Amino acid sequence: MDEQLRVGLIGAGPWAERVHAPAIAGHPGSRLVSVWARRPEAAAGLAGAHGAATASSPEELISQVDAVAFAVPPEVQAPLAIQAAEAGRHVVLEKPIAGSLDEARRLADAVDRAGVASLVVLTKRYTPDTREQLERVHAEGGWVGGSVRWLTGALLSGPYSHSPWRHERGALDDLGPHVFDLLDAALGPVVEVVAADRSAHDVWQVVLRHEGGATSTAMLTMSLAVSPPVLEVEVYGTAGQRTLTTPATTPIEAYTNLLDEFAALIDSGKTSHPLDVRRGLHLQSIIAKIRESSTRTP
């Protein structure tokens, strides 16, 4: 792009502070212009650290920028992102993209109607390691199944342990989009939730069926004192078993790659991308089906 993309950031919590703000401010193609958060003191602190201004309202922020990045709970993100899209602003969306499937549909439709670019912050998918591994998986073919185990104690301690929406929605909404996105990308689109169960300790166990007949399993929690955290992703089939290793890329590096692709989308005038709002809607539909299928409703 000939000029830097003017980006506004809505949200000033730990993830905004650690990833969104430094990546946007440090990218050569973007400039962090304004920050708004429900806590003005948090917005002021984050904005000041990166040479940005603060906005008195989301409407003021949206009026000042070319694009809006969101680092807020899903039920807060969706209506504000719709507002931004309707104002012609491109959007960087956190996962899950909304608080409900209906909200996610409204958001996706608003982005489509406005003809703006959108990307979802599925950090692992913006890393060269993951992309190369998925390319090898697709080239080999013959996969009949896969599994993911992601076990952490992130809700027990650490920077995200005081997040109300994460405690309310648990691992399904926070880790789930990453997990189901990887399984879907490796084995084909998820078409059915075969079984789902949530234990009293918020341990989710899910069985999925993919287009073409492959099946996969997922086990995830953020409420067990597992140290170090466990993240295992594998696929298996006629070619044997393959493990997708954890990317060495940091979240800021992954977000920088996202911004590269975001700027390229906008510069080209295109809006379609494998990780755009429609991908977010697909993942939201999987989460909704899992909740409906759960033998223990949260």
Automatic annotation (TrEMBL):
**Keywords, ordered alphabetically:** Oxidoreductase
The record lists the lineage as: Bacteria, Bacillati, Actinomycetota, Actinomycetes, Pseudonocardiales
Please provide, alphabetically and separated by semicolons, the GO molecular function terms listed in this UniProt record.
nucleotide binding; oxidoreductase activity
Q: Which InterPro entries does the UniProt entry name for this protein?
A: Gfo/Idh/MocA-like_OxRdtase_N, Gfo/Idh/MocA_oxidrdct_glycsds, GFO_IDH_MocA-like_dom, NAD(P)-bd_dom_sf
Q: Which domain of life is it from?
A: Bacteria
Chain segments annotated as transmembrane? none
Cross-referenced PANTHER family, in alphabetical order? Answer: BCDNA.GH03377
Q: Where is the Gfo/Idh/MocA-like oxidoreductase N-terminal domain?
A: 5-117
**Organism, as annotated:** Saccharothrix violaceirubra
UniProt entry tagged with the keyword Oxidoreductase: yes
Is the keyword Zinc-finger assigned to this protein? no
Its protein name is Putative dehydrogenase
Ranges of residues in domain GFO/IDH/MocA-like oxidoreductase: 159-240
